[in-house]
């Protein structure tokens, strides 16, 4: 679900980066550092402060306040009926298929929402009211083998927060089963559906009563089975389990009582390998295990005692997040990587790239009854194929998991709305709606999929616009159709054409054109800039 965020909230979503100091932008009517400028600057600061106070007042009113009789009033936002209007797409994290009705798909996001499709992924609807945990990264999602109405979800929010959750009404309402754990993997036993196994940062936990009670399998002393990223249960042996960690895989053959390290250089696997996903061949004659790691795909035909690295995928695409075997054509495998989807039709001898190399593939699912229908969960949304995974198109109608950092209406045409999108890979950038937010499309050439953090449109010359991004500042002089990068205090560019990036240019977190375009200000993480009189150069204050 798209979320309108300020600079602070945006930084919480992109936790790996520093928290900003703030951002504003400058104006062409400034005349240098004279006393006249100082007077104008003080006025600008006072004006901005008043705006912030006004915003704080409105927000407190929207969140809710206390009535004179002491009872809390109903928050303003809840007095309206809200519905999704896009922009559709966004970061899709996990996919699940109902084993009883194969046209029903579920998708989990990186911000705690679950969507449901009843037409094999052609359209989606949010499961409301949902988990209610904004920011929860959903790592596992599946439908219970015994009841289509029961869903399980596992995820994390921060280093130690998260847990396991269950819904009994198709994802509408949820209750926690395992609390205060950053859960990175959850599986259900094919032999005893009431048995659940969860992988967390502090070890492996097992429940034998559907999640009501849990016990820790991996001992606190002995093998260092921690930072668990993936789990796979042997479909032929209920006591055999494989666990992937941030440092090699482990195996147990007695239900978790004892564990054996099954990775490392001596066994044919790079020592420091993050194990993102483990696939165990379900056929009785198979006995093949695949491990998707940060260093590529490994295959074992000896129960994990030895491994062979599968070649054919270029080094740049060897951070493999998921490996998936076709349910019918056993020689067809898919590899979802941080550099696109790769496919082999000969068991892994030769691989070829199916999608754009700049796509991050998080999960793969195949329609059980129509195996030519292949679904992908990616950083740009949901992609669907009807030809067995040879070609893909977006299938995001109703699915909205984008992060919206800024939202502005046009100064002359208020029904025209601009939205700055971030964390959507190639689909990041500026979006526009010309019908009050009902429909959206990508807008403007030259932004090259950058994260748009802030937006500003001049009052006297509304065809002039500025956007602040994670790669610096861009300007358009034709109403947003074409954009040109502008240096901030000595920024420079490298590369060619549409692939050029702003180097040594700060993230522009906020922009402001003061009344009458008296000043245009840009605020970065460490400095405040103003635009010169000619509108061509940004100078630090």
What is shown here, in short?
The chain has 541 residues and is mainly beta. The chain contains two helices and 45 strands. The two termini are 38 Å apart.
Describe this structure as you would to a colleague.
The structure is a single chain. This protein has about 550 residues and is mostly beta strands. Helices cover about 5% and strands about 35% of the residues. The protein has two helices and 45 strands. The strands form twelve sheets. It has a five-stranded mixed beta sheet, with no helix packed on it. The protein has a four-stranded antiparallel beta sheet with strand order 3-4-5-6, with no helix packed on it. A hairpin with a 6-residue loop joins β33 and β34. The protein is elongated and about 75 Å long. About 45% of the residues are buried.
Task: Name some characteristics of this structure.
single chain, 541 residues, mainly beta, Hemopexin, Methylamine Dehydrogenase, Chain H, five-stranded mixed beta sheet, four-stranded antiparallel beta sheet, 7% helix, 37% strand, disordered N terminus
How is the secondary structure organized here?
Layout (H helix, E strand, L loop, with lengths): L2 E2 L2 H7 L21 H29 L25 E2 L1 E6 L7 E5 L4 E4 L7 E2 L10 E7 L7 E7 L3 E7 L7 E5 L3 E6 L7 E5 L2 E5 L7 E2 L11 E6 L7 E5 L3 E4 L7 E2 L13 E6 L8 E5 L2 E5 L7 E3 L9 E6 L7 E5 L2 E5 L7 E2 L7 E6 L7 E5 L2 E5 L7 E2 L5 E2 L1 E7 L7 E6 L6 E5 L7 E2 L9 E6 L7 E5 L2 E5 L7 E3 L5 E3 L6 E3 L4 E6 L6 E5 L3 E4 L6 E3 L1
Parallel strand pairs: 1-32, 2-31
Antiparallel strand pairs: 3-4, 4-5, 5-6, 7-8, 8-9, 9-10, 11-12, 12-13, 13-14, 15-16, 16-17, 17-18, 19-20, 20-21, 21-22, 23-24, 24-25, 25-26, 27-28, 28-29, 29-30, 32-33, 33-34, 34-35, 36-37, 37-38, 38-39, 40-41, 42-43, 43-44, 44-45
């Amino acid at each position: 679900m798209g979320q309108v965020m300020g600079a602070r909230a945006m930084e919480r979503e992109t936790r790996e980066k520093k928290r900003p100091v703030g951002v504003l932008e400058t104006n062409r009517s400034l005349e240098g550092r004279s006393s006249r400028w100082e007077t104008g600057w003080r006025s600008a600061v006072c004006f901005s402060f008043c705006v912030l106070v006004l915003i704080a007042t409105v927000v407190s009113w929207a969140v809710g306040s206390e009535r004179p009789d002491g009872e809390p009033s109903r928050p303003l936002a809840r007095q309206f009926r809200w519905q999704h209007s896009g922009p559709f797409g966004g970061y899709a994290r996990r996919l699940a298929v109902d084993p009883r009705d194969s046209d029903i798909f579920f998708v989990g996001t990186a911000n705690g929402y679950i969507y449901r499709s009843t037409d094999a992924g052609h359209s989606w609807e949010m499961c409301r009211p949902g988990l209610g945990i904004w920011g929860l990264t959903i790592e596992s999602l599946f439908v219970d083998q015994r009841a289509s109405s029961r869903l399980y979800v596992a995820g994390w929010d921060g280093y130690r927060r998260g847990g396991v959750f269950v819904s009994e009404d198709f994802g509408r309402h949820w209750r926690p089963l395992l609390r205060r754990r950053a859960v990175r993997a959850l599986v259900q036993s094919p032999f005893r559906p009431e048995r659940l196994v969860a992988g967390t940062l502090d070890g492996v936990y097992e429940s034998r009563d559907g999640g009501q009670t849990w016990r820790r399998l991996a001992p606190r002393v002995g093998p260092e089975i921690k930072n668990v990223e993936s789990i796979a249960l042997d479909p032929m042996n209920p006591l055999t389990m494989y666990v992937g960690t941030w440092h090699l895989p482990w195996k147990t053959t007695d239900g978790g009582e004892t564990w054996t390290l099954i990775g490392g250089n001596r066994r044919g696997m790079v020592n420091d390998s993050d194990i993102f996903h483990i696939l165990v061949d379900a056929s009785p004659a198979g006995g093949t295990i695949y491990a998707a790691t940060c260093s590529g795909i490994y295959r074992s035909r000896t129960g994990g005692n030895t491994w062979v690295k599968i070649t054919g995928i270029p080094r740049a695409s060897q951070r493999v997040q998921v490996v998936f075997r076709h349910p019918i054509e056993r020689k067809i495998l898919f590899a979802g990587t941080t550099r696109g989807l790769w496919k082999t039709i000969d068991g892994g001898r030769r691989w070829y790239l199916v999608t754009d190399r700049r796509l991050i593939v998080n999960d793969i699912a195949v329609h059980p009854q129509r195996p030519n229908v292949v679904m992908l969960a990616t950083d740009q949304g949901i992609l669907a194929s009807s030809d067995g995974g040879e070609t893909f198109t977006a299938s995001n109608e109703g699915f909205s998991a984008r992060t919206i950092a800024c939202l502005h209406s046009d100064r002359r045409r208020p029904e025209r709305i601009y939205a700055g999108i971030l964390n959507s890979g190639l689909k990041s950038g500026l979006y526009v709606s010309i019908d009050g937010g009902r429909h959206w499309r990508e807008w403007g050439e030259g932004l090259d999929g950058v994260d748009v953090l802030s937006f500003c449109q001049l009052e006297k010359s509304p065809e002039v616009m500025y956007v602040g991004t994670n790669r610096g500042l861009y300007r358009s002089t034709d109403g947003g159709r074409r954009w040109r990068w502008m240096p901030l205090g000595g920024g420079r560019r490298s590369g060619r054409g549409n692939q050029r990036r702003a180097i040594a240019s700060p993230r522009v977190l906020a922009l402001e054109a003061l009344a009458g375009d008296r000043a245009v200000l840009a605020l970065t993480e460490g400095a405040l800039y103003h635009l010169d009189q000619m509108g061509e150069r940004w100078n630090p204050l």
